[in-house]
Design goal:
Structural class: alpha/beta
Strand content: 15-25%
Number of strands: 15
Radius of gyration: 17 Å
Largest sheet: 3 strands, mixed
Shape: globular
Distance between the termini: 15 Å
Strand order of the largest sheet: 2-1-15
Bound molecules: citrulline
Length: 270
């Protein structure tokens, strides 16, 4: 096992993050249900607040320019997986998102990151990958298939990371739409995942019914960023002793996106 693998805090202690500004084309982003297009100006404003919150949590943020050719590229998490020893380019499963990883890879290399290129012949979205302290879980979904999983598994196992295929619940876009890591042995999950076998060795806090979208929160160092509008979840986390900060994601959520999707978070080096 690599000496960088699975140090305590590896899954929620971050030194840096990379985000991508939403472009004008974001109005044409993919959505399961059309509740109208997001408003670009409002999206940018919420995105700027998101950057500030990451910075307040102690993370150095690199902001990349919008990619107008890819309306969903603000959801940068789907194109790559950050490890302490490099950034793995993925292969997003939606046709309009093909090309996002290649564009990102070129930029990351210019910025001096070690990039592990994708040679998968299947598909895999970062939103389906949950990094915990004991294993990396990959949710098989409409966007992540067995071939994509097998490819990532070979890359991760070579580097000493235990990896397991799990199931993204039916009708849910990504595995992490429904769960997040809160600390080394605690996850927050919707009722759909709370009893999942993969979480058997974790303490699971269940998102109150009706607030399922709040499962897409992110712990960043000592703060848990929670989407605004889910008071019962924010209260539950505060009661459990977490420092909670709420953030508006009204425009990202029109495209089925949330807090985790909008950044690549780089684990703290030792
Ligand atoms: C998509 O359907 O690909 C985008 N509209 C939303 C992606 C959200 N990403 C994520 O949950 N990791």
């Amino acid at each position: 096992m690599s000496d960088l693998t699975f140090r305590p805090g590896f899954s929620y202690r971050f030194s840096a993050a990379i985000v991508r500004r939403p472009g004008r084309s974001v109005a044409g982003g993919i959505r399961a249900i059309d509740r109208g297009p997001p408003d670009c100006a409002r999206f940018r404003q919420e995105h700027s607040e998101y950057i500030r919150a990451l910075e307040r949590a102690g993370v150095r943020v690199t902001v990349l320019d919008a990619l107008e050719a890819h309306p969903d590229s603000v959801f940068i998490e789907d194109a790559a997986l950050c490890l302490p020893d490099g950034i793995v380019l993925l292969r997003p499963g939606a046709p309009s998102r093909t090309g996002e990883a290649a564009a990102l890879g070129a930029t990351l290399e210019q910025l001096g990151h070690l990039v592990i290129a994708c040679q998968a012949d299947g598909f895999i979205d970062g939103g389906d990958i949950l990094t915990t302290e004991s294993a990396i879980f990959v949710g098989l979904s409409e966007r992540t298939d067995r071939r994509g999983f097998a490819w990532l598994e070979s890359i991760l196992e070579r580097r000493g990371y235990p990896v397991r295929a799990v199931r993204t619940p039916a009708g849910v876009l990504h595995f992490k739409s429904d769960c997040c890591v809160l600390d080394g042995d605690t996850v927050l999950a919707t009722y759909r995942l709370a009893g999942a076998e993969c979480f058997a060795s974790f303490r699971v806090l269940t998102v109150p019914r009706g607030e399922e979208a709040a499962a897409n929160s992110i712990r960043v160092n000592d703060t848990v960023l929670v989407p605004a509008g889910f008071p019962a979840t924010a209260e539950l986390l505060a009661r459990e002793g977490y420092a909670v900060e709420t953030l508006a994601v009204s425009q990202a959520s029109l495209l089925d996106g949330g807090l985790s999707c909008m950044s690549l978070r780089i684990p703290v080096a030792r």
